[in-house]
Design a protein that fits this description.
Layout (H helix, E strand, L loop, with lengths): L18 H36 L9 H17 L14 H7 L2 H9 L1
């Protein structure tokens, strides 16, 4: 504030309590940190789920779901490139006999190798 000659005669002071705003900012940062942690955990679990969905847990070989997804991908790629695709399927007849004759771990090794 100034008088008629322009000399200061007083002050106006405005004080605001921003402690609630600071508290809210801290809470927001904590929520962001927790969200990032949850996102990382979800990504890890999704990757694990994908592996479980596309691999046989006993042999760790690709399963039919993986085969179907890969075949679909390769067919689309061949179409885009106007190319061809070859497919070879091998089937072990009467594999249950191997499983019954050998113990399970040896039969699993037959599949893996």
């Amino acid at each position: 504030m100034r008088d008629a000659e322009g000399s200061p005669t007083g002050m106006v002071v405005v004080v605001r309590d921003i402690s609630s705003r600071k508290h809210e900012e801290g809470e927001r940062e904590e929520l962001k940190r927790r969200l990032a942690e949850h996102t990382t955990e979800l990504e890890r679990l999704n990757e694990l789920l994908r592996e479980q969905a596309f691999e046989d847990s006993l042999t760790e070989l690709a399963n039919r779901r993986h085969f179907t997804a890969t075949l679909d991908h390769e067919i689309r790629r061949a179409r885009r490139r106007n190319g061809e695709i070859s497919l070879l399927i091998a089937d072990v007849d009467f594999f249950k006999g191997y499983n019954d004759t050998l113990d399970t771990s040896k039969a699993t090794n037959v599949c893996s190798e």
